[in-house]
């Protein structure tokens, strides 16, 4: 079974061939079975053409036999707990070491060890479980977000969660839920109930958090009214209020719930990609397990 891709070209075919050959002898090269190995494609013009690298340059891959899977369980547990993890692989021995990573830490290879950074899954907390929330939740899952829903109105929340497997409902009032979630830089929060009693409670906590995106449904006039209300009654600062995306979503002149959902998810992805200082690999990406 093949999972994922590297270049979408002949590189994958060569990697499959190496796997089938059990890493003994490929193209006259002896590759050790029980240790990681460095594979370089595109060293020469002929090789670049052969492996479908028309843009030139070289592609370096660390190919690793997956002999011990204990580290996988530990890594998945850490990322599920929204921790950043650095995984260091020693090529000479195949030894793996996991350690705490720092935000901004990038992949590093010094010829002897390869350190990759694994991060938690991006998550989206929706306040409200109406028709628009259903569309947003569905699209967000397609772009690999973990979707959480908070709506104290039982009839709405039950309808959303029951009809969409994989969506997690968090019970409680919006402000309590946001506070207990402890939003980090991998969290987006969007208020969609159109009820100030619920939306403002969530925004009050969200705008003070480390969430990378905070948005709220409503017209420009409603957003200005909301900002004045939050500033006057809850003493949110100018900087905190400036973090609010509202009207929420890209200006696509969207009309239907599905179109509005497209604009919301598109803006969340745009902000995520623009503000990310480095690429965080999700678990089981960034290497070639055997």
Structure commentary:
This protein has helices at 10-20, 45-50, 70-80, 131-142, 154-163, 174-181, 196-206, 220-234, 238-241, 257-275; strands spanning 25-26, 29-30, 37-41, 59-64, 85-90, 96-100, 108-109, 113-118, 123-127, 146-150, 168-169, 187-191, 213-216, 244-245, 288-289. The strands form 4 sheets. The protein has a 6-stranded parallel β-sheet, sandwiched between helices. A 4-stranded antiparallel β-sheet has the order 6-5-8-7, covered by helices on one side. Residues 277-290 have low confidence and may be disordered. The protein has 3 domains: 10-65, no CATH class; 68-119, no CATH class; 123-275, NAD(P)-binding Rossmann-like Domain (Rossmann fold). α4 packs across α10 and α6 (174-181) runs parallel beside α7 (196-206). The longest helix is centred in the C-terminal third of the chain and has 19 residues, at 257-275. The chain is elongated, with a radius of gyration of 23 Å. The chain is built from 10 helices and 15 strands. Helix content is 37%, strand content 20%. It is α/β, with parallel strands linked by helices and 290 residues long. A hairpin with a 5-residue loop joins β5 and β6 (96-100).
Query: Can you list the strand order of the major beta sheet?
Result: 11-10-9-12-13-14
Number of separate strands:
15
**Roughly how much helix do the residues carry, as a percent range?**
25-40%
Order of helices and strands: HEEEHEHEEEEEHEHEHEHEHHEHE
Structural class: alpha/beta
**Low-pLDDT segments, ≥5 res:** 277-290
Shape: elongated
The CATH architecture assignment of the largest domain turns out to be 3-Layer(aba) Sandwich
Biggest beta sheet attributes: 6 strands, parallel
Strand fraction equals: 15-25%
- Counting structural domains, the number is 3
